[in-house]
What we know:
The complex is a heterodimer of chains A (436) and B (181). Chain A has helices at residues 13-23, 55-68, 111-115, 158-162, 212-219, 269-283, 303-312, 367-374, 413-435, and strands at 5-9, 29-33, 47-48, 53-54, 72-76, 78-86, 89-96, 119-121, 130-132, 134-135, 147-148, 175-186, 190-192, 209-211, 240-247, 254-255, 258-259, 288-293, 317-320, 325-328, 335-341, 346-352, 354-359, 361-363, 401-403.
Amino acid sequence: xxxxxxxxxxxxxxxxxxxxxxxxxxxxxxxxxxxxxxxxxxxxxxxxxxxxxxxxxxxxxxxxxxxxxxxxxxxxxxxxxxxxxxxxxxxxxxxxxxxxxxxxxxxxxxxxxxxxxxxxxxxxxxxxxxxxxxxxxxxxxxxxxxxxxxxxxxxxxxxxxxxxxxxxxxxxxxxxxxxxxxxxxxxxxxxxxxxxxxxxxxxxxxxxxxxxxxxxxxxxxxxxxxxxxxxxxxxxxxxxxxxxxxxxxxxxxxxxxxxxxxxxxxxxxxxxxxxxxxxxxxxxxxxxxxxxxxxxxxxxxxxxxxxxxxxxxxxxxxxxxxxxxxxxxxxxxxxxxxxxxxxxxxxxxxxxxxxxxxxxxxxxxxxxxxxxxxxxxxxxxxxxxxxxxxxxxxxxxxxxxxxxxxxxxxxxxxxxxxxxxxxxxxxxxxxxxxxx
Amino acid sequence: xxxxxxxxxxxxxxxxxxxxxxxxxxxxxxxxxxxxxxxxxxxxxxxxxxxxxxxxxxxxxxxxxxxxxxxxxxxxxxxxxxxxxxxxxxxxxxxxxxxxxxxxxxxxxxxxxxxxxxxxxxxxxxxxxxxxxxxxxxxxxxxxxxxxxxxxxxxxxxxxxxxxxxxxxxxxxxxxxxxxx
Lengths: 436, 181
């Protein structure tokens, strides 16, 4: 008797690792991703901490492996719609959104995008770069199949005419796929905190205040600026950059329903800010990098050492003081940062060319709807709740459903990968039980 | 001369007598409305950073006051001038990531200072002026004479006796009385 398959929701690093580990055990895997490509947030990053490994270099081989694995069925641009618990597992319905491109025919040559007349901000570049209405989010996308963005497409039909493979099909309809699986792994990841909610920092109003994920795209060689870090106001190279930590994290403020922050620590911001500080030092030789922090929390192997290196070897400045207010100087678009250096007890005001807000991690958008579909409990912050914080954080909502990676709570890449492998094992165990 | 004495004075200020520390102060304060979250302060410095008083005064720091209150340095907190400098603009309260109502904590501290007899002389004077004349500022006789000479209309009169009666009921004169400290 063939063992039942496993459904994995979310194609980020956690979902990819879980898919590979389940599939390697000879079990069928269906990997569902709502975006046109798998890869998730990790594909957007430039380098990873604490080793400064190229993020794409360690992720893309895994992405390709997922696409080529005989036991993995990849369902991109698809969303989970319905789950019904049956005697031996789950009956699920997945909505495959229309790409308007036949996946079996598209060769990924990109001629269609060359001819497409519409340029729209690329979500993958945090809106800093542009893409066409027919697009792949990034060149290493898996699957390398083009997608027509229904919202922006004007139905001019140019792509259809130039496509040699005759893959473009503007009449494609949404498709519902029904599957029966034995276990479900939720790996929906996170979304970043909306920095506009912290109006004192001026994100959205001041052009030179950016989020950390935007910096990741700017500093990335495959990003919209080709790896040059530029000020968004005038395109000049910044010489004084500051990082503001704990934006939307460790914030107890709750004004009625205007809930502004998250009380928890997002775990990764300290390390990614230090990493980006070091990268900036490597990219721009005479740059001055300052990190304003409440506490530096270097979690994980090699992190503390990396922090010390940033301090001593790379001469990144650390000021212990949470920033209270940012003011833009209208003429230069430089930014005045008000903080207290709590080590000297002096209230200081310093000028910077660019500010990076280290935004925290939040439950992925749509997780609430997903929790309703799957009938799993969510905690007070909106993350799916595991059975036990210490001994069984994977199992959620009864038998056969597991939650992994940043979907469960803020988590860095190494921990998400560990989670994924562990949940793959848990899923395999639950399938073995079903077989008896 | 002054150069020699200043460091010594500074040094004396830094010396902490164990008898002056009241470890129970935090509990006492935490019971007061507005100061419940006193012990949640992480000392991040956000309050001082955007404080309009701290920007112009070298000695005023809401963060330090909270720290001293947490540690139970009661006489240092209550006798310091800084708790009276707060303008109650509530900027610190808006900014505090721990949702600590700093301006309210300072109000609680001021109330406590008054109850224990720590009032700056100028404020004590103002208080007694209010009870005596009905206004914060006692207009000197010479100025009233000058006004008359210049032909200005007489100043509006208040009814200090009625005010004094009210003050007596709420126990205000007793609070601003000079006490041996």
